[in-house]
Amino acid sequence: MSLISSSRRRFLSSVGAVSAYVWIPRPVHGYGAAEMRAIADGAGQVRPGISKWDLDTPALVVDLDKLEKNVQTMQAALKQYGLPSRPHAKTHKSAAIAKYQLANGSIGVCCAKLTEAEVLSAKGIDRIMMTTANPSVSKIRRAMALKKAHPAFIQAVDTEQNARDVSDAAKAAGVVADVVIDVAVGARSGIPPGDGAVALGQLISKLPHLKLRGMLSYDGAVQHANGFAERKARALKTIQPNVETFEAMKKAGLNMEIFSGGGTGTYNIMHLVPGFSDIQVGSYLFSDMQYLAIGNERGPVFDEFAPSLTVLTTVLNNRFPNRMTTDGGSKALTLNVPHAGVIGEPGMDYAATSDEFGAISFTTPPAKNYKIGDKLEVIVPHCDPVVNEYDQMYGIRGDKVEVIWTIDARGKSQ
Amino acid sequence: MSLISSSRRRFLSSVGAVSAYVWIPRPVHGYGAAEMRAIADGAGQVRPGISKWDLDTPALVVDLDKLEKNVQTMQAALKQYGLPSRPHAKTHKSAAIAKYQLANGSIGVCCAKLTEAEVLSAKGIDRIMMTTANPSVSKIRRAMALKKAHPAFIQAVDTEQNARDVSDAAKAAGVVADVVIDVAVGARSGIPPGDGAVALGQLISKLPHLKLRGMLSYDGAVQHANGFAERKARALKTIQPNVETFEAMKKAGLNMEIFSGGGTGTYNIMHLVPGFSDIQVGSYLFSDMQYLAIGNERGPVFDEFAPSLTVLTTVLNNRFPNRMTTDGGSKALTLNVPHAGVIGEPGMDYAATSDEFGAISFTTPPAKNYKIGDKLEVIVPHCDPVVNEYDQMYGIRGDKVEVIWTIDARGKSQ
Q: Which strands sit side by side in the sheet containing A109-111, from one edge to the other?
């Protein structure tokens, strides 16, 4: 049984959403996904609304007021920095949310996987940049079909062979492909910065069916670096070789209008990178326990984006000392750490380590006496993979379900 | 970067499937899910078959020869022990596999969640035992609708209130509900063994719309206890209070035809429990890295069930020293440990810690020179939650896709 550490408890107490007491009404119904779909109109709108506490659990819900505020906060900050957003759709995998982002100032969205881009394109999202180079001729061919249908589609490339294959597929599709070079930060994806990357840019500029638009440089690891000063120092250091490559490409006369990367953890850092054109924020919509813990310039909680994404779960068992079992395990919350944060209960540790069940342990008495059937609301450990466990999320306003959003690209990992 | 430990490497080398060299043909197509669906007939059959290496990745595949042999092995062992199987459908969430189990000697299947039971019932699976007590009146009502449509449905109950609620719902539905008492092993679900459980049995036997069938006792933790002797000792010790409760219930004149529990890790232990009626094996179909590592009477590898369930993944990047990036991250393989085992490459460590990408590291040279676009096949870390990430699995025979099985209850965690 994992018990909550004192440092974890201190952290949770400092997260406003976790420490505030919440009154939870007794649920009376328990609307399942099919029932909710039947109530909603074609656009997913639910009128006059049903209490979120009446949803069958585990249920993925997003607080619309918080989500909208998060988008405003991000757009206002980026406006100040002169840096547009090109949010990563891998976070939400939902056409409805992508549309909202595009309607609220984002210049496009990113997709990590081809199937994700295909599904969102089919749902009307046309300004997609695919940030992963496609590793096979068949995938490249499908990407060029997307380009043909959606002229704003941009594709990452990362080797000379890959560039030639994209050019061939573009030719076959009768298009000129807009491409960006994925220049590696760290050792995960992309071509290493330096002469090889510049040579790739020069090749691309000569291939007849490619149009070079610029480069990508995404540092995944630095987004969760702990503490603003540390994060800033690391982000600016790891990007430095890429800045030099960017400059060398410009010097070589290449078209470098795009220099894209960054994320929610570096939203207020990447404008310091010379030439940076746009930032691929994603988690700012939802936040999560991982992001809350990275801290900011003011303290240990990264609190500029409210945790809008939660999972509602139900107490199944309250009979054993200092613990409870819920219906949300790893299939509902994933195994990511830090653990889910139970709203209103900073003294609880919620381990979703079992596939089907959550195990809550506590060393201090809970704020109330929980009965079987009572519900809890938890801030998710890590938003992206939790979203990928659900077919829909419920958009909530004032505790009432306002809309059902389909997670169109759920499971689209190909 | 996580490097493979020497003990891990020794373990992997001792797993036949991981240590054997495999020849992987160069993929030529890359069939996506929609293309494969279009090729298959209404029953999911694919004729004359497409090479598994030609599937778009990440792809979840199951080797049918191994799966069938695993079922035969389990059924033969249980026949010898005189213990029928009632497999847990949470493992595969697929009506096609449940049907195969029922056609091959299983007396029924178990479901962990109501929505799982609803979906599988709708697909024609009628001998379902729901092993989790439903925590709300609405869920109980839905369970009784299942009972009405499928008379063989059995429902777990775990408190007096819960029993009364099930009785009321059964009355309203015009049925007599078959119920089993979930008697706790450990501190997760169910009523603790002892007088309270017996009293619950007595109440159930008096409630007019309930028919007591027996009890459940599932010890999840002991399934993965390391080493056969340790596992056997622990399993027989933790079940002992429940055996006493079972005896007390019988002595009280209660109908105790069912005493169900156990799992793949204790398939060859639970017949030693007096009165035990059937075993809820699940992972025996697929095995996984977690099960392989628990050992058996002969050695450190639990090898009586072949690892039939694998994920095919593609190399995206091979440019950094002693590592490769693949297209299968935590959304394709989950964060469970031990890590996925790369078939043919016991010197590789496959960390699926990033959402979208796998990070393979190695300290000794791989068996071959991997290029971008090459494929790898990996044994999954933990079968249940990996299955829950996919909409379908491909049934493979001799490396050819023979059938597409829908994972009907994927995401049904409610």
A: A109-111, A128-130, A154-157, A177-182, A210-217, A258-261, A278-279
CA A53 – CA A314 distance, rounded (Å): 10
Taking the Cβ of residue A159 and every Cβ of chain B, the question of whether any pair is shorter than 8 Å is answered with: yes
Query: What's the complex ipTM?
Result: 0.96
Q: Is B139 on the interface with A (CB under 8 A)?
A: yes
For residue B11, give how far its alpha carbon lies from the nearest alpha carbon of chain A (Å): 24
**CA neighbours closer than 13 Å in the CB half-sphere of residue B361:** 12
Q: Is the pLDDT of residue B26 over 80?
A: no
What are A223's two structure tokens?
Answer: 């987004």
Reduced to 3 states (helix: H, G, I; strand: E, B; else coil), residue A374 is: coil
Closest-CA residue of B relative to A188 is: B325
Q: List, for residues A346-395, the tens digit of each pLDDT value.
A: 999 999 999 999 999 998 899 889 999 999 999 999 999 999 999 999 99
End-to-end CA gap in chain B: 37
Q: Decide if A399 touches B, using CB distance below 8 A.
A: no
Token representation of residue B98:
């449940």
Select from B28, B53, B138, B314 the residue whose CB has the most chain A CBs within 10 Å, as the one to mutate to test that interface. B138
- Say how many C-beta atoms besides its own lie within 10 A of residue B38's C-beta: 9
- A221 and B CB contact within 8 Å: no
Global confidence as pTM: 0.97
Test mutation, B116, B162, B317, B391, chain A, max A CBs within 10 A: B317
The pLDDT, as a whole number, for residue B27 is: 67
User: Looking at chain B, which residue has its C-alpha nearest residue A328?
Assistant: B413
pLDDT for B6 equals 82
State how far the Cα of A44 lies from the Cα of A55, in Å rounded to an integer.
15
Query: From the CA of A39, how many Å to the nearest CA of chain B?
Result: 17
In the A/B pair of chains, how many CB contacts fall below 8 A? 172
- Is-contact A310 A292, C-beta < 8 A? no
Condensed to tens digits (0 to 9), the pLDDT of residues B93-139 reads 999 999 999 999 999 999 999 999 999 999 999 999 999 999 999 99
- Asked if the C-beta of A391 comes within 8 angstroms of chain B's C-beta atoms, the answer is yes
Tell me, yes or no, if A408 comes closer than 8 A to chain B by beta carbon.
no
- Burial of B225-235, coded b for 16+ CB within 10 Å and e otherwise, reads beebeebbebb
* Residue A371 at interface with chain B, using a CB cutoff of 8 Å: no
Rounded distance between C-alpha atoms, residue B75 and residue B85, angstroms = 8
Q: What is the pLDDT of residues A264-306, one digit of tens each?
A: 999 999 999 999 999 999 999 999 999 999 999 999 999 999 9
pLDDT score for B1: 39
Q: Given its phi and psi angles, is residue A128 left (phi above 0), alpha (psi -120 to 50 degrees) or beta?
A: beta
Q: What is the pLDDT of residue B16?
A: 83
Encode burial over B143-174: b for 16+ CB neighbours within 10 A, e otherwise: bbbbbeebeebbbbbbbeebbbbbbbbbbebe
Q: Measure CA B271 to chain center.
A: 20
Q: How far apart are CA B32 and CA B314, in angstroms?
A: 14
What phi, psi does A53 have (nearest 5°)? Answer: -70, -10
Average pLDDT over residues A19-34: 83
**Contact A139/B at CB under 8 A:** yes
Distance between CA atoms of residues A316 and A374, nearest Å? 8
Q: Judge whether residue A407 has pLDDT over 50.
A: yes
Average pLDDT over residues A403-409: 98
CA distance B235 to B263: 11
Chain mean pLDDT for chain B: 96
User: Which token pair is B269?
Assistant: 């232990």
**Domains of chain A, with CATH numbers?**
6-65+302-406 (2.40.37.20), 86-280 (3.20.20.10)
